[in-house]
TrEMBL record:
Residues 37-68 form the 4Fe-4S ferredoxin-type domain. InterPro entries: 4Fe4S_Fe-S-bd, DPD_II, FAD/NAD-bd_sf, FAD/NAD-binding_dom, Glut_synth_ssu1, Glutamate_Synthase, Helical_ferredxn. PROSITE patterns: 4FE4S_FER_2 (PS51379). The keyword Oxidoreductase applies. It holds the Pfam family Pyr_redox_2. GO terms for molecular function: iron-sulfur cluster binding; oxidoreductase activity, acting on the CH-NH2 group of donors, NAD or NADP as acceptor. It comes from Corynebacterium falsenii. GO terms for biological process: glutamate biosynthetic process. Pathway: Amino-acid biosynthesis. This is Glutamate synthase subunit beta.
Length: 512
């Protein structure tokens, strides 16, 4: 518990965002500095709630009230130790997690919840600056070799836990850099990739080995004593409408990685560039919003985002009661940028960077629209030039278009961001013979263990962590499952384990 009266004295406050015209001219993170003393005030809002439901809201089981109280008192080193005990990568979750812990905060029943995410982020950045984040090397070597396929949050968390337990761990990543979708999916303005590199240096110093540019086959895994498949769920849901085959229509995960390669310095211009184009994004979730912010930074003439669902309410509704994560109206940083209205006083550099040459004062840079169904993509026979859509609603037989609501609009670039449906059938999945369920997930039991049906690999324990087994989910679930799978694997190899496991294994199927 922090200050028992803090929530009565202080309101919720967060770091300010950099001005929209300024931040759209670069790829740097969007936040202004937020002073430590202000963070301590925010931590003091943590109330004496009796039962801290934030624990259940957090898939990692972070002991949030304890590090809130330590921050309030200025005991930053102890707060860091408490945070790192349950979360391998607070700098990732502190930037990218949607904070289900805040949705479960007891204070949030009648007031704004505690700004847990900001406190978490500040703790870990304080620790890095003070040099407290050091390699934790194993005290002994087990002689067991573990292969981890995939280097997203689940794979990295499993790798760090197993390395610290004394196993010889090798992480295989088919991309040219480690990080999974954090590297080639999350835009730079949401998380600069230098933070991934910083953490990888610690992991390499601990003893974890990384192999990039390689999608391993079953033969590559011979000689390992156990395998963790943390492949993610990267096959995007498609749009089965006329015109889908036209050039200029891309999946979000074709578009976003191409932009990341530019910010990594691999090329000067993305092969899928929104500059000077009218962009339409189909899908209202986080991935679509990432496309929104990316297109604005590339200088799109206009950006329109369609969500097939209705506009969320401003306050928590009956469908998402406390302490579940509330479905409410939110304005992401990208949408805040879209709401910027052209003033006519922008500099020449701003006009060029923001794609304002075809704009008039008062225009918004981008808009999002709800309850919209895309009916057809139109083109010139080769490239997409527009789309036809209609308003939609839930009817007796499912989704239906609203009569007389049809519309047409221009579009030079259409991005599909409608969620992810399955794991890719990679060579290692085929060679090991891992079964895939009706939802496109790798089949595993309540202990995260999968069955290799190929006789050649029947004796190798195989575990599945993250989106590959759970389906599309949050970064915090990926880290949690990586830690859990590591504990189960360690138990199989050694007969027992001292590794902490944040998830009760019986909850896996229920929460999937």
């Amino acid at each position: 518990m922090a200050d028992p009266r803090g929530f009565l004295k202080h309101g919720r406050e967060a770091a300010a965002h950099r001005p929209v015209p300024l931040r759209l001219m670069d790829w740097n993170e969007i936040y202004e500095d937020f002073a430590d003393d202000k963070v301590q005030v925010q931590a003091s809002r943590c109330m004496d709630c009796g039962i801290p439901f934030c624990h259940d809201g957090c898939p990692l089981g972070n002991i949030i009230p304890e590090w809130n109280d330590l921050v309030r008192q200025g005991r930053w080193r102890e707060a860091y130790d408490r945070l790192h005990a349950t979360n391998n990568f607070p700098e990732f979750t502190g930037r990218l997690c949607p904070a289900p812990c805040e949705g479960a905060c007891v204070l949030g029943i009648g007031d704004d919840p505690v700004n847990i995410k900001t406190v978490e982020y500040t703790i870990i950045e304080h620790a890095w600056k003070q040099g407290w984040v050091e390699p934790i090397k194993p005290t002994f070597q087990t002689g067991q070799k573990v292969a981890i396929v995939g280097s997203g949050p689940a794979g990295l968390a499993a790798a760090q836990q197993l390395t610290r337990a004394g196993h010889e761990v090798t992480v295989f990543e088919r991309a040219d850099r480690i990080g999974g979708l954090m590297r080639y999916g999350v835009p730079e303005y949401k998380m600069e990739k230098k933070w991934i590199n910083r953490r990888l240096e610690q992991m390499e110093a601990e003893g974890t080995k990384f192999v990039t540019g390689m999608s391993p086959t079953g033969d590559d895994l011979k000689g390992f004593d156990a395998v963790v498949l943390a492949l993610g769920s990267t096959i995007g849901r498609d749009l089965p409408v006329t015109g889908r085959e036209l050039k200029g229509v891309y999946q979000a995960m074709e578009y976003l990685p191409a932009a990341n390669h530019v910010t990594e310095g691999d090329r000067e211009v993305s092969e899928i560039d929104a500059k000077g184009k009218k962009v339409v994004i189909i899908g209202g979730g986080d991935t679509g919003t990432d496309c929104f912010g990316t297109a604005l930074r590339q200088g799109a003439v206009s950006v329109t985002q369609f969500d097939i669902g209705p506009r969320p309410p401003k306050t928590r509704g009956a469908s998402t009661p406390w302490p579940t994560y509330p479905r409410v109206w939110r304005v992401a940083s990208a949408h805040e940028e879209g709401e910027y209205r052209v003033t006519g006083n922008e500099s020449a550099d701003e006009i060029a960077a923001l794609g304002l040459a075809e704009r008039t004062p008062g225009d918004e840079l981008g808009v999002r629209k709800f309850s919209i169904n895309t009916v057809e993509l139109t083109g010139d026979g080769e490239k997409v030039t527009g789309l036809k859509g209609a308003e939609c609603r839930k009817g007796e037989n499912g989704l239906e278009n609203v009569p007389d609501s049809d519309f047409e609009m221009d579009a030079d670039l259409v991005l599909l961001a409608m969620g992810f449906v399955s794991v890719e059938e990679t060579p290692v999945v085929r060679d090991l013979g891992i079964e895939v369920d009706e939802r496109g997930r790798l089949v595993r039991d309540e202990h995260f263990r999968a069955t290799a049906t190929s006789p050649e690999f029947a004796d190798i324990p195989v575990f599945v962590a993250g989106d590959a087994g759970r389906g599309q989910s949050l970064i915090v679930w990926g880290i949690s499952e990586g830690r859990s799978a590591a504990a189960e694997l360690d138990r199989v190899l050694m007969g027992e384990t001292a590794l902490p496991k944040p998830i009760n294994p019986t909850d896996v199927a229920m929460r999937a």
